[in-house]
Amino acid sequence: MEKREELYRGKAKTVYLTDDSDKLILLFRNDTSAFDGEKIEQLERKGEVNNKFNHFIMSRLEEAGISTQVEALVSDTESLVKKLKMIPVECVVRNVAAGSLVRRLGVEEGQSLNPPVFEFFLKNDALHDPMVNDFHIVSFGWATEAQIASMKALTFAVNNVLKKLFDDAGMILVDYKLEFGLDKDGEIVLGDEFTPDGCRLWDKETRKKMDKDRFRQGLGSVVETYIEVAERLGIKL
Ligand code: 5GP
User: Fold this and answer.
1) Per the structure, how many domains does the chain have?
2) Which part of the chain is the SAICAR synthetase/ADE2 N-terminal domain (predicted)?
3) Residue 110, in any domain of the structure
4) Are residues 114 and 210 in the same domain?
5) Ligand 1: centre distance to CA 2 (Å)
6) What CA–CA distance (Å, rounded) separates 114 from 95?
7) Are 140 and 76 in a shared domain?
8) 148-173: string of b/e by CB count within 10 Å (b at 16+)?
C-alpha cells in the first residue's frame, strides 16, 4: 500500500490518499485540541498511543460484529482504513452525567443515567458543534431515517461492548462520541476514532479522570494517563 497526497488535515489526524482508491491512511498526530480548536498543544507520544488504542478498540468492536473502517496498523502513528463518505454528525452516548450535559441542564456531574442518554451534534467548529435532532438531520439531508436508526443502534451496541471492556479494567465509560460514514456499497460503517480524546473514562474506585478532560481542565499527565488506560486494557505500545 503506497501513501499518496494529503486529502484532509483535521485537528488531531491527517488523512492521506493511497494507491487504492477505496483505502485511506489516517495519521494520528501529537496535536491535542480543545474548545473547538482554541486550545492546541503538542503532547509527545500521543499520536502513537491513540493510533494503537484506536486499532485495539476497533478490533474488539469488529469481533463483536460492528463494522468499522479500520483495516490495519501501518506504522506507530498510522492506520490503513476504508474510505467512507462521512455523515457530518457526532453520535454521543452518556452513561454518567458530565461535560456539556452538566453545563446545559444544570445536573450534578457523576449522576448515573438510566437509560443512557443519546445525543446528536452537528460537526461544525465555527458553530461550536450545536446539538441537533433527527428532524434536522433528515430535513437538511445529512442522513436518512434508516441511517439514523442504524447510527443509534450501532452507538448503543458499542456501549454494550465497551462498558464491559472498561469495567473489567477498573474504569467507568462515562460518555463517548462516534462518527459514522457510508462505504462504497452504501453501508453504515463506524469511522473516525475511539480514543481517550473522544470519550470520558473515570477510575472506578477513585473517579480519577483518565481522558481528554485532563487536557481540557489542565489536570496534567495527559499522555501518561492515556498510557495507563492502554496498559490496563493490555494494549501493547
Ligand atoms: P460533551 O458534549 O460533554 O462535550 O462531550 C461528550 C463526549 O463526546 C465526550 O466524551 C467528548 O470527549 C466527546 N466529544 C464531543 N464532541 C467532540 C469533539 O468535537 N471532538 C472529540 N474528540 N470528542 C468530542
Assistant:
1) 2
2) 7-232
3) yes
4) yes
5) 33
6) 7
7) no
8) bebbeebbeebbebbbebbeeeebbb
Measured between alpha carbons, how far is 70 from 134 in angstroms, rounded to an integer?
27
Pair (204, 116) in one structural domain: yes
Cell numbers representing residue 95 in the block:
452513561
- Which tens digits make up the pLDDT trace of 89-105? 999 999 999 999 999 99
Concatenated DSSP letters of 20-81: STTEEEEEE-SEEEETTTTEEEE-TTHHHHHHHHHHHHHHHHHHTT--BSEEEE-SSSEEEE
**Mutation probe of ligand 1 site: the residue of 32, 175, 229 with most atoms within 8 A of C-beta:** 175
Helix (H, G, I), strand (E, B) or coil at 216: helix
Encode pLDDT of 59-83 as tens digits: 999 999 999 999 999 999 999 999 9
235 is a domain residue:
no
* 192 and 115 housed in the same domain: yes
Distance 213 CA to ligand 1 centre (A): 10
Where in the sequence is the domain holding 190, given as residue range(s)?
87-220
| CA of 129, closest atom in ligand 1 | 19
- Looking at the structure, do residues 171 and 61 belong to the same domain, yes or no? no
Establish whether residue 197 lines the binding site of ligand 1, counting it when its CB lies within 6 angstroms of any ligand atom: yes
Among 30, 49, 82, give the residue marking a domain's end.
Answer: 82
Identify the CA nearest to 95 among candidates 36, 14, 155. Answer: 155
- Give the predicted TM-score (pTM) of the model: 0.98
Q: Are 179 and 123 in contact (CB under 8 A)?
A: yes
Q: Can you tell me whether residue 210 is helix, strand or coil? A: coil
CA distance 199 to 192: 13
Q: What is the pLDDT of residue 36?
A: 87
Rounded to whole angstroms, the Cα distance separating 183 from 22 reads 9
